[in-house]
Amino acid sequence: MEQGVSTKVVHMEKQRVRHKFPFKLRHVIVLAFVVWGAYTYFFVQRPLLLQEAAMKAKVTQQVYSADQESKRLTAQIQALHSYQYIAQLAERKYNLIQHGDILFSTTPPPTN
Predict the structure, then answer these.
(1) Distance from C-alpha of 62 to C-alpha of 70, rounded to nearest angstrom
(2) CA–CA separation, 46 vs 9, rounded Å?
(3) What does each of the 112 residues of the chain score in pLDDT, given as a tens digit?
(4) How many CA atoms lie within 13 A of 92 on its CB side?
(5) Residue ranges in the chain assigned as alpha helix (H)
(6) CA dist 112 to 82, 92, 108, Å?
(7) pTM > 0.70: yes or no
């Protein structure tokens, strides 16, 4: 019986003691990917997205302004088809008068 006890003691001495790490390797790898993804989003992608949003707002404002200008010019083109508007424009811009009107000049005479 002594032999049985001695073999058990020897067998127990041969077992290695394994140290258990608090984290498994796959958890560390997953955590590394999550940290990398968060860094990429907050410090790389998010500033680019904010810049693109600002550019989109600027372009939207430019499109709106161009649309308003287009509507104004279309209304002016429609008005140019009217004889009365053309006569009014000629009087205002080119100091022309219609037949039968009297022209009054309000500029002071030149002094010598």
Answers:
(1) 12
(2) 64
(3) 555 555 555 555 556 666 676 778 899 999 999 999 999 999 999 999 999 999 999 999 999 999 999 999 999 999 999 999 998 888 888 878 888 888 777 777 778 7
(4) 6
(5) 2-14, 25-40, 46-79, 83-94
(6) 45, 30, 12
(7) no
Rounded to the nearest 10°, the torsion over CA 8, 11, 13, 17 is -120
Query: Tokens standing for 77?
Result: 């083109």
3-state secondary structure of 109: coil
Q: State residue 81 phi and psi, 5-degree precision.
A: -80, -5
Contacts of 79 (CB under 8 A, 6+ apart): 85
Q: Give the tokens for residue 47.
A: 């500033």
